[in-house]
Queue: 2 jobs
Job 1
Amino acid sequence: MQDEPRPDELIKAVADFLRDQIAPQISGHAAFKLRVGINALDLVTRQLALTGESDAAEHASLKALLGHDGSLFNLNAELADRIASGAVDLSTPGVKDHLWRTTLAKLAVDQPNYASYRRELEGGEQGLPTNTPSS
Amino acid sequence: MAATAFVEALARSVRSWCAGATGVRDVAQLSGGASQETWSFVIERPDGDVAAILRRSPPGYGSVSGRAAGLDAEAELMRLAYDAGVPSPRVLHVLTERDGLGDGFLMQKVDGETIPRKILRDELFAAARPKLARQIGAILAGLHGIDSAALPSLRTISSTQEIGLLRDDYRAYDWPRPVFELALRWLADHDPGVSKQISLVHGDFRHGNLIIGPDGVRAVLDWELAHLGDPMEDLGWVCVNSWRFGEIDRPVGGLGSREEMFAGYEAAGGHVDQARVKFWEVMGTLRWGIMCCGMMQRFRQGPDHSMERAMIGRRSSETEIDLLRLLAPRG
């Protein structure tokens, strides 16, 4: 077992340092690149916090949809193939909900401030990730 | 910034075709990958300096990609657009071997803003904003109305071919995405087929490629992806949510409604087919998503190991939620 602090705690400490101490001292193109870098660290922090639960939920949902087990990658590939062939579509029970849940879980990590995502959080009650971080 | 030999070659070129030009100054690179560069500079003349832009492939680099129209075609299209009254920078000179600067062209610099957040939020553009969606419609009608007989040689691409190209690109990334498959399937099922009207299509008409001033659109840039095809493609692409920058209830670049754009298009002599526009909006959303995947792949495999590329790769999920909102809205 590795020692503490955990990776998410370390990354957050670095991101906060760059945001609070360094960003105010930097301008121009370097400031833009610094912002991109801070955004990347924030994304990783969210991913570390959220992926365990969202991957488990996606895995369970894929197993139920496809009727058997497999790796997350292979199950996704199989669902993709079935959609491509027309064997599965939006009228297949569970497919639409599954696509929405997995997509919302991705946005919670990738871009929680994306306007379409925020609109869906305001609008819909069902199938939302329960632990969306506030940042 | 700029190597001496390059600046000297640029000054020599300018003196050879610009009456009274004595030299150049303030040469600065605006953007550039390995194969395509943009430079800003000032042509010095006793009776008035000229602010200019150079777009070029440096000597030794060929065409950017199979989809690119080529810099010579770009220059020709900008000349035709300018003559047709489409806001466009004036092309000053197309490079020849004698210039020693590679392939490309020089144009007059157009003042204005290209940064979407400023255009959508700054007070300076407050008076222009309500008019822009309609103006964009009129500009697209003008662009699509350019006489095809006058056009340089361009590839023709149909909706069916475009679906195939996107499917190939997506499959090559070998990363299963059920939402992209859903979109590909929808596109195949709703493919409108060959358009009755085949026209010049700009191919990348959106924020970032429009120079906007307080008075409205001043120039349409970046004709790199121009081709012949369904004119409704440009109307769909400009509505892709990725270029609304948060103003998601104003589909035309975050500026206004589709209806305003359509009204401007029809008033300027164009004919709108709304089902085709929707088809191309879905196609455009998927296309941007697949382009984000391409950024990720180039980040991982290519020499440009940049954070920006990596982070753009993670934006493909934005297009997935937009595709679901278009094709499988909740509730």
Job 2
Amino acid sequence: MKHITIDVLVIGGGPAGLAAALEAKKQGVQEVMIMERDVELGGILQQCIHDGFGLHRFGKRLSGCEYAERFIQQVKAHHIHVKLKTTVIDILKDKTVFAMNAEEGMLKLQCGTIILAMGCRERTRSQVFIWGTRPSGVLTAGTVQRYINIEGYLPGKKAVILGSGDIGLIMARRMTLEGISVEGVYEIMKSPGGLKRNISQCLIDYDIPMHLSTTVVHIHGNNKLEGVTVAAVDDKRQPIEGTRRYIPCDLLVLAVGLIPENELSAKMGIEIDPKTKGPVVDESFMTSVEGVFAAGNVVTVYDLVDDVSITGEIAGRGAAKYLQGKLNQDTHYQMIHSTNLINLVVPQRFRKNNLENHLTVYMRVREEMKKVYIHGTMNDRVCLHKKLNIVSPPEMVVSNIKKEDISDKGDITMAIERG
Amino acid sequence: MKQEFTCIVCPVGCTLTVDEENHQIKVTGNQCKRGLEFGEKEYTRPMRILTTTVKIEGSLHKRLPVISKGEIPKEQLHQCLQALYELSIKAPIKRGDIVVEDICHTGVNIVASRGIEPLIND
């Protein structure tokens, strides 16, 4: 078995991993390595050929692959080690990593720090419980995207999409452009999951109908998908009798949500937040295991790749500081709580003396609200008060709390106040 | 004529109302200047960025993602797609390389949105 010693090992070569590796290197770390199971760097961005990426970061509408390549070129220029086609199979608490690839066989790595950047995974049919047979032609949206945009296959002629998040909407347009007829987008909730601009430019532009409070209740066909039955649902998301409708189709696209991919993290004993489904992290995106950091969609599913890159940079900086002994670990953690209109908050805790200028807090709200205040309190004192025109579940709310407004002791409570 | 549009310039997605009276176009509902421009254009001549893939040979990947360097009239999107589907590109290609110049006389170039290395058989 080959033994490798490395200062920073980044697991995953997507946008979070690329940004994390780059930042660690820029902060003066000698040996940085990215480990990626795919044949190339870039992660899922490589199959996201649509534009709209990097609006915040580059002020431009880039396609996913363009966004990825900007980072990949920098990673190459900074002489970061890259191991492709390599799968990590185990991580121990003492930061020993076991991985393997076809050329070298088993690898044993002793790492100074580890940055987890494994991203997220799509929810599958078995996680949304649809009755019926198990024919081919039932695919997740990401799989369809990979088939069409990278492999060059068209996996069907007539499609039904379940789920109206941005991924479902973007695939509705993509399939239409490739000549697949999209019968409609079905959404179990009362309101659409995706952004308004995507409903406009992906569905309305191509006359694709969206059916709210409606879901797929049955899958038909033996070897190949022959059709699906859809039905309207009541307030408890139960199908309403008399509303069942059969739709013949050969492709059911499931766009039913993303879950952070934390098998490795959980196995090594990292504390997982049940709300985010990712590791509990601090201001430097360090997990509950000392010296192990996390970044991007493995922490919680972000909407914008710009945010994924930013969290990668925070983790990269944290890892560099940890190695250089500059990361304070002596003081107690102060917590960040949220009230009921806010679903989740990242990071969950912080140490004030590790903050540079401000504490960046990511929050996801429960429902769409207009003209609201985002309100942070600490020991009955206000540390953040900012007006927002609109907040909605598809878009993460990002706020910076100034270091000077944060007390040395006590927790922060974040709340949304209606204007 | 009064029409409503959803602004697609940024994630906010304002609902725009465009009113035309005596050849004067008035946009309301926008929260920023870019929405004003979008509303006018959407009413008079809707434009879109086109992204798709074209066939590529001699590489590990089968498809090359491409993007229009500017916006294309919405009514010409289909025509442009058809032209692109007839193409076959040879690897290697660099990001930003022009794949089609002035596609369908729109004045817009179609460029590669990533680089693709040639396949080396060993």
